[in-house]
Design a protein that fits this description.
Blueprint: H1 4-15, H2 18-22, E1 29-37, H3 47-51, H4 54-62, E2 69-75, H5 78-94, E3 102-106, E4 113-120
Parallel strand pairs: 2-3
Antiparallel strand pairs: 1-4, 2-4
Length: 123
């Protein structure tokens, strides 16, 4: 009887090796994955206060205008989370990241946080 583990082993054997299974598949490399918590989001937002948020500083230091890079903002569900993500996107654009590099996705992992990702893939 052929079992699932045996099938997997055979597939890996005939494919050559595990890394080769994913070569050229466009799996992005995560350059930054940082949460921004609601308590860290300033009530009164100015360029100075937004730039003082560590994940935003790190993102701006790492981001390069390259078609292989993408900034993802994962946000909590609901109107409040969506509005927060839209505002952060506006701030990132104002700080120099072109809007076509920014993607919004639901699912930050908590109601009190945004998740900021910078990924680089091969095109």
């Amino acid at each position: 009887m052929i079992t699932r583990p045996l099938i997997i082993i055979l597939l890996l054997y005939f494919a050559g090796s595990i890394p080769n299974l994913f070569a050229g598949q466009g799996i992005p490399e995560t350059l930054l994955e940082q949460p921004i918590f609601a308590e860290d989001w300033p009530d009164r937002r100015t360029t100075k206060t937004v730039l003082s948020i560590p994940p935003i500083k790190k993102l701006l230091a790492l981001f390069v205008e390259d078609p292989r890079q993408q900034v993802t903002i994962r946000y909590p569900g609901g109107d409040k989370g969506n509005a927060w993500a839209l505002e952060l996107r506006e701030w990132l654009v104002a700080l120099g990241i072109p809007s076509n590099y920014i993607v919004l996705e639901p699912g930050s992992g908590g109601q009190d946080r945004l998740l900021l990702l910078l990924e680089a893939g091969d095109t």
